[in-house]
Amino acid sequence: MAAARRTITQASGTAGEQTGQPSVRVRTLLRAAEKVFAVEGYHGATMRQLAEAAGVSVSLLMYHFKSKEQLYYQIFVHRQNINEQRRARIQAVDLDRPDALEEIVAAFIEPVLALHDDPDDLWFARLVLREAADPSSQQRQVISSLFDPMAREFIAALRRVLSEKPEGFHEWAYLFSVGALTQSAFDTRIRNLANAPSTGDKNASLRSFITAALRYG
Predict the structure, then answer these.
(1) CA 143, CA 100: separation in Å to the nearest integer?
(2) Is 116 exposed, middle or buried (0-12, 13-18, 19+ CB in 10 A)?
(3) pLDDT in tens, 156-173
(4) Tell me: the pLDDT tens digits for 115-136?
């Protein structure tokens, strides 16, 4: 497993992924692929579709990313700064403060919700929803290597501030929180369900919902 992860992580060596930020061309390819994967899913997207969306040949796409799996993984690597922000904010919370739970929830959701402010970034938020809901995601390494470290920070913080909860609660609480957060990527659904022109403040509603579920669940 470790060897396979190294292979995928290093696959874009021609584009400079091992030593720092990818090139402008590679960033363009990754952004185009985000939308295709968000719409078609991992299994539905083909290398031809991905190349056409980026306006390049399949051979050029293969030059930078040796396989569809490697391209898919590198999308999440390129966006890993979001999880790094979440981890840093969780680690910075003073867990002895009365409002520590609210701060933990804010650290967990706000870097993701910031994606919703830009239509281009929203495709990545929707791609995360697909990956989180795909039963075959465990066959890839995206969740285990790029999201689980942040998840463990979140769970550890919950254990401190919600120490009275039974064994297993904190892990399930994380997964339920992920479900609520990822569903927030689709504003069209709430507009279809709402009886009023305004659907309210999504960020505040989500924050209060998750916080209450954790505290009183």
Answers:
(1) 26
(2) middle
(3) 999 999 999 999 999 999
(4) 988 888 989 999 999 999 898 9
Q: What is the 3-state secondary structure (H, E, C) of 90-101?
A: HHHCCCCCCCHH
Assess contact for 150 and 87: CB atoms under 8 A: yes
Last residue of a domain, one of 62, 78, 94: 78
Rounded to 5°, the CA angle 41-46-52 comes to 110
- Which CATH number is 124's domain given? 1.10.357.10
pTM (2 d.p.): 0.83
For the chain, the domain total comes to: 2
CATH number for position 22: 1.10.10.60
Counting every residue, how long is the chain? 217
- Taking CA 113 as the corner, what is the angle to CA 108 and CA 78, rounded to the nearest 5 degrees? 85
